[in-house]
Amino acid sequence: MAYQVEQHQIKRGHQWWDYCAEVCFASKNLFNTAQYTNRQSFIYGCGVLTQAELDKMFNSDIHYKQIPAKVSQLVLKQISDSWQSYFKASSAWKLDSSKFTGKPKMPGYLDRGGRNLIKFNTQAIGAKAFKSGVIVPSKSPIELPVKPGLKFESMVEVRIVPKTGCYVIEVVYDDGSKLAHINDTGLAAAIDVGIDNLATIVFSDPKIQPIAINGKPLKSENQWMNKEVEISQLKGKRNIAIVMNASTFSQATDIDYFITNASTSIVTPEWIVNTYSQRNWVEVFYREAKGWLGLKEYQVRDKRSLLRHFTLVFCAYTFILWHQMTGGLRRRWASKPLNTFTEALEAFRTAMSYRFFDWLTHNRDVFAAYKASLGYIWA
Fold first, then answer.
1. What is the average pLDDT across 175-187?
2. pTM score, whole prediction
3. Measuring CA to CA, which residue among 256, 321, 325 is closest to residue 288?
């Protein structure tokens, strides 16, 4: 089966904004409360609770009652699923750690002031209202028009997803198409991505007809949407490419904007695809800088302090990456290849901890005097 997703964007001031904010905030609170219980249970050697056990424990919780019971149960299922994934990842890491950027971490909490998505399955969607042509999630003011021809049996769920500056209500349904399942594990396929032909797929079995996907409509649409403009806040001209999944703005449900300093002679659909595909390495940097070096942990607000914080993080990232690439840390502080950023960082931490304890061994009196100057006894 293949799922289709219909999206509705809810911005501040919309009649459903307050409801979305309230239920997503309650979902976050329920998630963190139940997650705390599971983490403490695991840390103290009692294992983790199943979804059923969590539901029995929290069905009288104030946050549980703020949203429909079926929806609260799906929030608890998120916790159960995260722990199952953690255990599977930990087992795989023990077998072959080279497939990971670091040791899997225990499932954590959501941001204190953040929001969590909520899901309404078919049991939490009004069947009578659906027959009247409206999708109404349980105990909500939301009323979405039913897509022509859509049957209630094809409905999968309705989701409210928190985004930056808005909430996105997603209607998920099964479009009835079936995916082909290939049992022959020896069969291989090669995909060549292009422009005139968006993708060409050939198979190792000559009996299977190659597939060519026409990319000319997308190419012409994308070229038409490449415009050179002047932006009042910037000097000079910039090229903006607008890529969307329809021929007009009113019909489009997914619109992406790209802005570049490159000249019009360079900005082609192929150049945009090739350039944007390199963004993956930017995401890798953000994942490592945020997860390990505290890029998002700043506690300042003015520009100068922010620049200092970012500069320190960038310097730390460059330092660790340089040692990973040159092998400096491995020669002294590791007995295995440091293939990932996290492995190199752990080797650096090992070096620092060793240096500190070595210094402390020879300077106990100095450290004790320092603590005494602060009013503490270190003995």
1. 65
2. 0.51
3. 321
